[in-house]
Every structure is written in structure tokens, then in C-alpha cells.
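Example pasted here:
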Amino acid sequence: MSISLSSLILCPIWISMAQIQQGGPDEKENTTALKDLLSRIDLDELMKKDEPPLDFPDTLEGFEYAFNEKGQLRHIKTGEPFVFNYREDLHRWNQKRYEALGEIITKYVYELLEKDCNLKKISIPVDASESEPKSFIFMSEDALTNPQKLMVLIHGSGVVRAGQWARRLIINEDLDSGTQIPFIKRAMDEGYGVIVLNPNENYIEVEKPKIPVQASSESSDEPAEKRERKDKISKEAKRRREFYEKYRNPQREKEMMQLYIRENGSPEEHAIYVWDHFIAQSVAENVFFVAHSYGGLAFVELMIQREADVKNKVTAVALTDSCHNVWHQEAGKTIREWMRENCCNWVSSSEPLDTSVESMLPDCPRVSAAYLENLV
């Protein structure tokens, strides 16, 4: 394992600072020596050697990648799959690059949902003002008017958004493996209306406003000497904090704050909101759910909150590696009984597909999905 130049130089400095703060021997001498050492370090130059700018393209073409006819992400020039360790020994930079690519792929999948699957993007909350944070879901034209059957898809937790099962599979395998598109197309071919939930889109991020520092009042009742001492301590603490922050965050990334979306601030809230405003309004005689991982927990919470309505409208639920827990979520006996009859959880297993898998919870049957370890 290689060690970066900045780590080699700065690690002893942090140790020295800690010793001084703990009141080690010869404190004054150590402080003077440390200040002299710090004054001779060009931290900006040091960081340039450690990490390139976090300035990434905003298109697939900019990354020099594209999806081929098989739906595989490949480098435009070499034809090679995506390489995570683009720059050796720069894990943070490589991770930021991966995340930037992931955001582009999220938008790409949104485009596929609209163009290839002919779904409509519906903004929520439905009565949102122009200025408030918003999310969205996707629906087929007949989602609310199909008299026979409706399919509802809920993905798991994390970075995935509407239309995705697993970002890692999209990048490293193909679109069919990592997106919901094969499910959507087959459902529509078989006459289902479709609603695609977006349970992880719970807030928007905006830059955190800077809070102006108020100058200490000269008219304070404190003695001038005490004020000066406090100011000196405050300035020294600020200098140390800025030094540490410059090392921890050399790129000076913006500090962001989260503005939550009304009635959609969590996957559970989102599922209930979409049920109340869309699924419950559909005329379909039979509603079917497919929910992966945390999406299963969101469905169980929906069932707890809208038990009678769900029982009346939902015909069957296919869960995949669902992380719901009927005990922790306090699902009642009638809900557990309904789940045993109407739900099935396909879980990661080395057993052949559809082989029964033992469960310690008294809810729905669990069977082997064989391949699902790739989704986790």
C-alpha cells in the first residue's frame, strides 16, 4: 500500500498538535517548532500533488463512454468496460468520478423511461407551488384508466432512482440487469398499466448560506484584557480549524443543505403519497407490486397505514430481497396473514430458483432468487 506525500508530512503534525493540546512536556518549545514547520509548508501545492480537481464531465460523451447495442457501458475508443481506479491511489477522487458518472446515468435512464417506454413524468406534490422542492414519478398513459391490471415498481435504498434496480449493475453489467426497463416493457406488452415510484428522491440540495460572524461588542461588560484573551483564543481555534478543513477538504467543495419535499421526505412517505394520489385513484381491478430491498419495507409500511384499502385493491406482491421486518414495523396479525397469502419474497440464495428458503419471520413465503446477490 502506498502512502501519499501529504499523509507522510502531515501525520506527525497532527500527532504533535494532539500532544500540545494535552499539555505535553516543553509545550512552549514544541509550539514554536510546530508553528515554524507549518509556516514552511505550502499546503496548496501539497494538495495539488495529492488530488486532481473534482471537475468531471456532465455527459456520457464527455466521459468517453456510451452504451452499446447490448446495453453495456463501454469506452468509446477502447471498447473496454468502466474502470473505477482511473487514477491509482486516489480512492476519493475515483469515487467522486464514479458518482458523477452515476448522476449522468440516472438522467439517461429517465430519458429511456420517457422515450423507450413511453412513460410520462409526473411532478409531485401534485399541488406544489413553483418555488417549493419537487420530486416526480413515471406512469404509463393508461396507469389510472386501465380497467384490468396495474403494475407498481419500487426500487431499494441508496443512490438509485426511478427506473433503476442497481447502479453498479448498470455500469458493470448492462441496462437490462440494472434497470426496471425489462419489467416495464413486459408489463406493458401484457396489458398492464405501469407506475414507477421514485422513493429516494426525498429532498433537493442547495448551497448552505454563509452565516456572518458578529464582531464582539466593544461595550461589553467584560474587562478589555479578558476580551482580548478570548479573541486571541477564538482566532487561534479558527486558524487551526481552517488548516484542518483545508487538508480534509482541499477542493473547497461547497457546503450543501437539504430541503425536503413535502409529504415525500422518506421512502415510506413517498409510497403512501403515491398510493393516496395515484394508485388509489386507478380503476384497475387488480394491482400488482414489485418491490426490491427497502422498497419491501416501504410497501409493508403502506400496508400498515392503509390496510383496508391495500387489501381491497392489491392482488399480489413480488418482493426481492426485501428488508422489511413485521416485528420491528409492528405489522398486525391480519396483515401478516394477508402477506402469507398474497406476497412472496425472492431472496439471495445458492439454491436453485424458486426453492423454498426457511424464514424466521411469520410473514410471506421466501424462495430462492439465485441471482439476486448481484443486486445487493
